[in-house]
């Protein structure tokens, strides 16, 4: 049998069922652990990894993450829509980048009324 995601040959005993898809162990774990914006374990490990690597502040971020960080720093407080349109990002991409920035304790979301704002940590 084959893994639905990566097309790798897998033995039936090594296959995992994920919502009707047959996945190998790696893909199954990846499917179970999408980046979660508010996962304390992920925060701890992301922060620990960065500390190990001697990274603080924006060191170790991708150019895109640095742009998002710089934009929020400049504005102080922005909505996700503003960031998305400023950087021309689809919302899902911004969510992904935001999850990383949140994990690294650089950017956080604050709710004011009905609006969600992104501010520096
Ligand atoms: Zn796979």
From TrEMBL:
It comes from the Bacteria. InterPro entries: WH-like_DNA-bd_sf, WH_DNA-bd_sf. This is Winged helix-turn-helix DNA-binding. It comes from Desulfofundulus australicus DSM 11792.
């Amino acid at each position: 049998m084959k893994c639905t995601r990566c097309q790798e040959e897998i033995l039936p005993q090594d296959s995992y069922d994920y919502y009707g898809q047959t996945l190998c162990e790696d893909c199954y774990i990846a499917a179970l652990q999408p980046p979660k914006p508010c996962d304390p374990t992920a925060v701890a490990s992301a922060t620990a990894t960065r500390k190990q690597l001697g990274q603080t502040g924006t060191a170790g971020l991708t150019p895109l993450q640095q742009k998002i960080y710089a934009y929020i720093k400049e504005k102080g407080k922005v909505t996700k829509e503003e960031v998305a349109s400023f950087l021309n990002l689809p919302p899902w991409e911004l969510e992904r980048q935001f999850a990383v920035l949140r994990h690294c304790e650089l950017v956080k979301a604050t709710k004011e009324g009905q609006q969600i704002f992104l501010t520096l940590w």
